[in-house]
What we know:
- The chain is 35% helix and 17% strand.
- By secondary structure, it is an alpha/beta fold.
- The protein has a domain at 85-258: Vaccinia Virus protein VP39 (Rossmann fold), CATH 3.40.50.
- A 7-stranded mixed β-sheet has the order 3-2-1-4-5-7-6.
- Helix 1 (24-36) packs parallel to helix 3 (71-83), helix 2 (43-59) packs antiparallel against helix 5 and helix 3 packs across helix 5.
- 38% of the residues are buried.
- Keywords: Cytoplasm, Methyltransferase, rRNA processing, S-adenosyl-L-methionine, Transferase.
- InterPro entries: rRNA_ssu_MeTfrase_G, SAM-dependent_MTases_sf.
- It is an enzyme of class 2 (transferase).
Amino acid sequence: MPTEHVLNPDDLKPDKYPRLAFDHDAWAWFIAACKDLELTVDDEKRSRLEAIYSHLAGVNSWLNLTRLVSPLDYLKFHIFDSLTVCNLVEAYTAPGDIVLDLGSGGGYPGLPLMTWIPDRQWVLVDSRARKAAFLQEAVKLTPCANPQAYAFRGREVASHHPELHQQCQMVTARAVGPAADLLPDAVELLAINGILMLLKGPAYPTKERDDFLHALPNYGFTLMEEHQLALDENDPDRWVILALRSDDMTTAKSKHHAKTAKHHAKTKHPKPPSAKPRR
Length: 279
């Protein structure tokens, strides 16, 4: 049985690991893909992404953060996949809003989104203390002025970080368990009219989707949008799902069980441009 790595805080520091560079082909693919999404890529962003990648690869040698370590796989399945929702974050949040990445793990979609949209208040959360400790170092590599990373479960936010309790404008979650299971966490994190955004794989439109839609009213959520997109022409469709926390959970449960249909005014958000697949 392998021995668990004894955590030394210095092992989490980015400068402990060699700086890695993206090869020409991988970076060319990424630039072309970002062009399809009308995202600006410059030397400063490349430098930051290479720093984030180098840190991830180094820590990943002893802490399980990802299976994708080649430059192309990293840029495609971690960075670009995260950036496909950049337009939605920009459309549904404003500068200064709290955007929380739940179950962030290795930092996705949070770290790429922070790099492109640094003027939100970004908080990365993972229930595992070691991964949260990694994230506390990783967020320093982004251009955000005051990024945060914490270890707690979303549904426990009131006791761990009460300043975040029902204060977030958006909660993102990528590949973090069944969609319906995230609602007890999201309702404790999001303000009224806050948005839960899920990034899901091709298996989503099955029982998982049915269970999620059934559970939404119990937690005061309504479905806003569902987007299908592919990272390139050879990949299966992925799903982006947005749900609005439109009501208080206690009130919503009573309405759901009583099957009432009382109208509630909601904040209207601008319709964002659709995410474009790489062609």
